[in-house]
Amino acid sequence: LTVSLYRVHFYATKAGIRIGLWETVDEIHCIMICLDKLLADYCDGYFFSYGEKTCLTFSIRKKYALPNSPLNRQICTVKHSVSSVIPCIKLGKLYANISFLNDCIRICRFMRNFELCEGIAYSKESEVCLTTVLGNCDDEVYLNEGYHFFTLNNCSKDRENERVDNDQPELHVLPILDEVCQLEFYKPLFLSDWSVITEVVNTTTLLECLTNCAAVMQTNKCSAIYFIDESCFLLERMTHLQSYFIRERASVFVELLFCEPSIR
């Protein structure tokens, strides 16, 4: 039997389905436990703690594999409705165990290719995503408490050639804000459509820099960071102006694709 191992970031609490917690002597023992559970519980991931000598086994959810699809390199304008009654709309399909609003939006974005989604009703508390389609004038949808309705308007390509060699986006926890953010680490040095909001000096870690951006994502429209030599540059999109940004080879450039409250 040949086993290939791939090291990934240990992110949000529901990025995988936890199978069990085991006391183990070493990492090899942890791997053997996962292999033993492979057929019965579909174990395909583990987290081994060298300090505690424990092994946490997972069944990783396929939806977090985040395939490098062209749809993942698009940007959509999303409108949030404050009403609890949505006219001229009919419910489509229900998707359970959808931990993030952004995942629900991505489902709708894909279904729009077949004209099967106009908007979504999403509840983070229930982790339920409901797609909706256009109805007639007599149709309407009543939203239960905790549900929010969003419509997808303009979706367009977003620097797909510039991002084609980037690794797949990753989910990272920002403990201070109690948020989970999906991050895309950029490989190119020549970047377009970004403008510096401000520079935060004496920033010692990448996590601190990311937290600075996420904290002002709504108020200052921060959506990316440029981190080098303990300097943290917060950046915003410049979609209507041709602006270019050349970063140093030793730097880190990260786009924050979305941030949402951490999963409980």
CATH topology call of the largest domain? Hepatocyte Growth Factor
Written as H for each helix and E for each strand, in order along the chain, the element string is: EHHEEEEEHEEEEHEEEEHEEEE
The helical percent reads 10-25%
Average the pLDDT over all residues and give the rounded result.
85
Secondary-structure arrangement, i.e. CATH architecture of the largest domain: 3-Layer(bba) Sandwich
Low-confidence stretches: 62-68
Main beta-sheet annotation? 6 strands, antiparallel
| Overall shape | globular
Number of domains: 3
- Radius of gyration from the alpha-carbon trace, in angstroms: 21 Å
The span between the termini is: 37 Å
**CATH level-1 class of the largest domain:** Alpha Beta
What's the β-strand tally?
18
- Backbone structural class: mainly beta
Strand content: 35-45%
Number of helices: 5
If you had to describe this structure to a student in words, what would you say it looks like?
By secondary structure, the protein is mainly beta. The chain has three domains: 16-62, no CATH class; 70-157, Hepatocyte Growth Factor, CATH 3.50.4; 160-261, Hepatocyte Growth Factor (3-Layer(bba) Sandwich). 15% of the residues lie in helices and 42% in strands. The protein contains five helices and 18 strands. It has helices spanning 27-36, 38-41, 101-111, 160-163, 206-215; strands spanning 16-23, 45-49, 54-60, 74-81, 85-87, 89-95, 119-123, 128-134, 140-142, 148-157, 170-174, 179-185, 190-192, 194-201, 224-228, 231-237, 244-246, 252-261. The chain has a six-stranded antiparallel β-sheet, covered by helices on one side. A hairpin with a 4-residue loop joins strand 2 and strand 3 (54-60). The longest helix has 11 residues, at 101-111. 24% of the residues are buried.
